[in-house]
Structures are given as structure tokens and as C-alpha cells.
Amino acid sequence: MPDTYLNFQELNLHEQEGRDYQIKTSDNWHSVLIIAPHGGNIEPYTSEIAQWIAGDDFAWYAFEGIKDAGVRKLHITSHNFDEPSLLKGLRRAQIVLTIHGLKNSIDEFIMIGGLDLTLGNELRIALQRSSFQVKESEQKYSGVRATNICNRGCTGKGVQLEISFALRKRIVQDTECRIRFIDTIKSMIKTWEQSTKVAKC
């Protein structure tokens, strides 16, 4: 299903902040930025997951659809997502992780995309070791365009997680699963941040 709006400026002409959508961010930007570009009612639970991963350690951003009817109109595909405050935060982000939602409500799995293939592979290994199923990313979820929001940090590459609805729901409802999932990702990002692999902006 094609997007209604081509970019944020077009969306903002027809939708009202505070009524149709809202933007939430952490208090400060950081070299690690966790993003939910389709949060709220657009792709449920992605905002919560992004904030849990960030915690008090990293920066986070969520664009949330808050209206009930027609919320799908608020979806701007990742390679067109250009909300100004997020672009500003991305200028100092060395590690970017975006959280997305797949519709599958039966199978619990993750697809990993983005241009940071090395970090993406490390996350895949860590998640599999923590008993999460990681499927090969389909082309439309590969996140390899340079303009994809996950690749617009100062290094020009990032990671995109596509999480099935079934797994997102379990992460929210099952405390053990949530802790295992969040800790796995957070631990890997912290290790990566401290390593020499991260380019300085």
C-alpha cells in the first residue's frame, strides 16, 4: 500500500500535531540514537521498544500516530522520512538503530537490515544466542538506501530492525522476554560504542 504523503512537510500540511500525531524525544541527543519512525498506532509497540532499548543510556526518538481512524496515512516510508528535529539529532549520531513493525501476528521473528552490515550481523548473532528467531531480510525490508533514516547518521550507515507483531506483543506483555530482548541489544550496542569500530563524527 503506497504512502499518502511523500515526506514530512507534505504530511504536516494535512495532519495536526497533538491531534493526529506527536513527536517524542529523549532530553538530550547522543552518539547512539534509537528511532521509532512509525510509532504509536501506526506500528504498535515500536515506540515502547525504542524507549526501553535507549533507557537512560542512549537518545531516542518516536514519531507517533495518535488518531484512531486513518492512522495508516501517517506512515512515511523510511527512505522519505525527513522530520526536521530527527534530522538534527542524526547529525551527531554515530550508531543509529530504527525499530519497525511487521504485521505478522502469529510468528515471532526479527528481520535485520541497514547499511551497517557488521553491526547488523553482530546483533543477529547475539539475538539468536538469546533464543530469538532472526529471518533473512526480504528486499523491501533491507534498509539499504542511503536516504533510509537508519543510514542518515554521521557515519552513513545504520541498522534497521523489523519485528513481527507477535514478537512485539510478547516483548510488551512478557517481562522475561522483554528483559532478554532489551538487554541483548543494549549490551551489544554498548560494546560496539566502546570499540574502535565506531567512526567519530
TrEMBL record:
InterPro entries: Gamma_PGA_hydro, Gamma_PGA_hydro_sf
Protein name: Phage-related replication protein
Source species of the chain: Desulfosporosinus youngiae DSM 17734
